[in-house]
Design goal:
About 0% of the residues lie in helices and about 45% in strands. It is mainly beta and about 700 residues long.
């Protein structure tokens, strides 16, 4: 069998190096006509690979590398090629920075770049980008950064004689310098110490460690300088004086306040005052201070020595205690200069007002007030006047008065003002709380009728003064004896007659406060009607007629209620009622007059029952035979009195009437009847009463 050998592909490529580290590979491989290359496999010699047709590869390290390309065509034939390429090294960029970097101070940069060992060439160019918009081409530049940032990214780019470049970036951080500042407190006045207050800020660059002051006052000698943070200085003249302050932080960065502020000193005012001649609790102060020409006094501060203050020019002050006080006046003029003066002021004692009153005080009752006022011991004089203000618009000059407060409020602010022989006045206020009295009230049940108990219901209100504990009733009915009064909350009372009665109610709460219902209510008791009626006696199945015979006694009868005893009722004046059964029924009539008083009465009503007819007869065989009839009739009321027989053969017997003056006592009625084909014969063996029931019977016909 013949074997066909197919021509294989030819692997080939070229390479170009850019940027000293980037290799561009161009595939130049070929394959026989009718085939095509289906895969590429690159090995770049540094452990990296690719399957692209013409790849680009960046070498991390410099040196000589063997690059291999392997190809496969569509016939499955393989070829490979191996070439060497050389990667030139980049220069290594590096630099150092001066260690202390305060904002605003110059920074020194030192180049430390180099070429890797074993390769020819040197660094020929430097380019610095300081990150603040400024650059430099010096190998070791010095730079003062612009802007307000404290952090900058600095990049150094170096170029070698081979044309390769390298760069390095470093972050430079500045220590913020402090910001010097101060203020002087108070006014700048001659012969007055000036306080300087440091306002310097660390500005984020570390805590402040030192302060250097120069007050520009060489005549003050050694006091002209200070290292305190907040010094005070007494200037030797009026100035002006230039003030210099230098502050330094913990990193050694410093700042000087520029331009230097100046201070000038002005002349001071003179403080003085007098007091009123009479000093009890209120003392009047008069300002007598002076100030240099061209200035005015702008503020006053009084310290009265008892914790009280004032900013008025000539104030008055009320002392709550007596004694000797150190009063100080401090003044300030329009130049801001101040002066002060202290004087001793003696305040005479005022009387101590005090009083008492009973612990329980009911609204509407008299309250007694007792004066307990006094003068402090060790002082001459006594209390000579009293004035009471009861807080309700009334007053009293008595030492210990009594007073009845109006009931419009429960609390009153009472003030006692007392005056001593020295003319000093004292007062005291106390709140008098009145215990609210209860509010008596009640209602009574209606209607109000003679011989009918009246229910009294208490409607009294506590009114905020405590629980009601006692009730005292008087019914204005002395004829009822011991029952005329009651102490229960909701009593009942049966009045002894008709007419008007005055009802009195007094209620007492837990605090002993009382109230009487005024004006005293009056109730009127009316006479009750007299209930009466009559009714006829009828037989079962007939209407019974009722006739009202009631008497109203007062007013007129306006309502009636009949109860017929069989579940039926009526409100008619003279009704009728049909009883379905016989017997005795209890009938009740209740009548009500125009005063609302009601009365009822009951009576028994008889309804007569119907008689019940019944009989028996002897059996018969043939027409013409005698038939014996035996009466078995009866009646539930009275006795049977009349019978009528109808034998249904054209023969009627009766009525047979029995005497009505007595009940029947003989035997039941026996009647014999003989029936023939053409006639009937009746044989009566004894008298009988009426028969109302017809009982049918049949009689056989016998032929002779």
């Amino acid at each position: 069998m013949p074997v066909v050998i197919t021509a294989g592909p030819v692997a080939l490529f070229t390479s170009t190096i850019t940027g000293c580290d980037t290799a561009h590979f161009s595939n130049q491989s070929t394959t026989p006509i009718g085939t095509n290359i289906i895969s590429y496999s690159w090995n770049f010699g540094d452990g990296s690979s690719s399957f692209a047709s013409s790849p680009v590869h960046i070498y991390i390290n410099y040196g000589t590398f063997e690059v291999k390309l392997k190809i496969v065509n569509s016939n499955g034939c393989v070829d490979s090629v191996l070439q060497q390429i050389t990667i030139t090294p980049k220069p290594v960029a590096d630099f150092s920075i001066s260690p202390l970097r305060c904002t605003g101070s110059p920074v020194n940069f030192t180049d430390q770049s180099f070429m890797p060992a074993g390769f020819l060439g040197s660094i020929t160019n430097w380019f610095w980008d300081f990150g603040d918009g400024n650059t430099s081409t010096l190998p070791n530049p010095t730079h003062v950064f612009s802007g307000t940032s404290t952090t900058y990214s600095v990049r150094l780019t170096v170029t070698a004689t081979t044309g390769c470049k390298g760069f390095n970036e470093k972050l430079i951080t500045f220590v913020p310098s402090p910001v010097a500042d101060f203020t002087e407190s108070g006014a700048l006045c001659q012969n007055q110490m000036v306080q300087f207050d440091d306002l310097s800020q660390p500005n984020g660059g570390g805590s402040l460690l030192s302060w250097s002051w120069n007050f520009g006052d060489p005549l003050s000698g050694a006091s002209n300088t200070s290292t305190q943070q907040n010094p005070a200085h007494l200037f030797s003249g009026t100035g002006p004086y230039p003030i210099m302050l230098i502050v330094t932080n913990s990193t050694g960065c410093s700042d000087t306040l520029l331009p230097m502020p100046t201070v000038s000193l002005a002349a001071r005012p003179v403080a003085d005052f007098t007091t009123s001649a009479t000093r009890c609790d209120t003392v009047s102060f008069t300002d007598n201070s002076t100030t240099p020409a061209g200035t005015t006094l702008t503020s006053y501060l009084w310290n009265f020595g008892d914790g009280g203050f004032s900013t008025q020019t000539s104030p008055s002050h009320i002392y709550t205690t007596y004694g000797t006080f150190s009063v100080k006046l401090k003044i300030v003029n329009s130049n801001g200069c101040a002066d002060s003066v202290v004087q001793q002021v003696t305040v005479n004692p005022k009387p101590v007002a005090d009083f008492s009153f009973p612990p329980v005080r009911c609204t509407g009752s008299s309250v007694s007030f007792t004066d307990h006022s006094f003068l402090p011991p060790g002082f001459t004089g006594y209390i000579s006047g009293w004035l009471w203000n009861f807080g309700d618009g009334t007053t009293s000059p008595l030492q210990s008065p009594s007073h009845v407060f109006p009931v419009t409020a429960n609390t009153y602010l009472v003030r006692l003002t007392v005056t001593s022989t020295t003319g000093c006045i004292g007062f005291n206020e106390k709140t008098v709380t009145l215990v609210p009295s209860p509010v008596a009230n009640f209602t009574e049940s209606s209607p109000l009728c003679q011989n009918q108990s009246v229910q009294f219901s208490d409607l009294s209100q506590e009114n905020g003064g405590g629980n009601i504990q006692r009730w005292n009733w008087n019914f204005g009915d002395p004829l009822s004896g011991a029952y005329n009064t009651s102490t229960i909350q909701n009593p009942t009372h049966s009045f002894s007659g008709t007419g008007s009665f005055n009802i009195s109610l007094i209620v007492t709460n837990a605090n002993g406060c009382k109230d009487t219902l005024l004006p005293i209510p009056q109730i009127t008791l009316n006479a009750r009607p007299l209930s009466n009626f009559k009714a006829d006696t009828v037989c079962q199945g007939s209407l019974t007629t009722f006739t009202d015979l009631s008497i109203p006694n007062s007013g007129t009868i306006i309502a009636r209620l009949w109860d017929f005893g069989n579940g039926q009722t009526s409100t008619a004046p003279n009704p009728t009622n049909l009883y379905a059964t016989s017997g005795v029924f209890i009938v009740k009539l209740t009548v009500t007059n125009t005063n609302g008083c009601a009365k009822d009465t009951t009576k028994q009503i008889l309804v007569l029952g119907k008689p019940v007819s019944a009989f028996t007869n002897s059996a018969s065989n043939c027409a013409g035979d005698s038939v014996q009839f035996v009466d078995l009739s009866y009646t539930p009321h009275g006795w049977l009195q009349e019978w009528t027989w109808d034998f249904g053969a054209g023969t009627i017997v009766g009525p047979i009437v029995f005497p009505t003056n007595k009940p029947r006592t003989d035997a039941p009625l026996n009647i014999s009847a003989r029936f023939r084909s053409d006639s009937a014969h009746l044989l009566i063996s004894s008298p009988a009463m009426a028969l109302v029931q017809i009982l049918p019977f049949s009689l056989p016909i016998c032929l002779s």
